[in-house]
Amino acid sequence: MENLRPAFAYIVVYVEDVAKSVEFYANAFGYNVRRLGDSHRWGELETGQTTIAFTPAHQHETDALTGVVRHAGSDRERAPLEVCFAYADVDAAYKRAVENGAVPVSAPEEKEWGQKVGYVRDIDDIVVRLGSYVSPPPVHQA
């Protein structure tokens, strides 16, 4: 029987300006650009096994099929999406992100679950979590 579990391939982030968002993520979070279409309607970063991709927030192809993208109504609201990146040095990653245009939300701090975490907002107001790697729990064998 074949494996019916699919590979998680993409997360698509709807943004106002694909080229600007691709450049921002490359500079602020340290990724290489995999692809930026000539029309600037699609961009991808080299992010490992799963690709982070960007497309315009409003386009008739997807708006008509799945609805219009909603934005937070105020600075006390956020999109129903959080982009999370893991780093060995969260403090350096946070500093780099802020120096490259990310809006600081919460400086890195140790959390009770054993992870160091800081938060910023990207140029489209999407919350980005910068966290340390978390070791998986030990496997108990009977």
Automatic annotation (TrEMBL):
Matching entries from PANTHER family are given as: GLYOXALASE FAMILY PROTEIN, VOC DOMAIN-CONTAINING PROTEIN
Q: Which organism is it from?
A: Colocasia esculenta (Wild taro)
Q: Which InterPro entries match?
A: Glyas_Bleomycin-R_OHBP_Dase (IPR029068), Glyas_Fos-R_dOase_dom (IPR004360), GlyoxalaseI/FosfomycinResist (IPR050383), VOC_core (IPR037523)
Output the Pfam families linked to this UniProt entry. Glyoxalase
Entry-linked CDD domains: VOC_like
VOC domain segment(s) = 7-133
SUPFAM superfamilies the record matches? Glyoxalase/Bleomycin resistance protein/Dihydroxybiphenyl dioxygenase
Provide the protein name.
Answer: VOC domain-containing protein
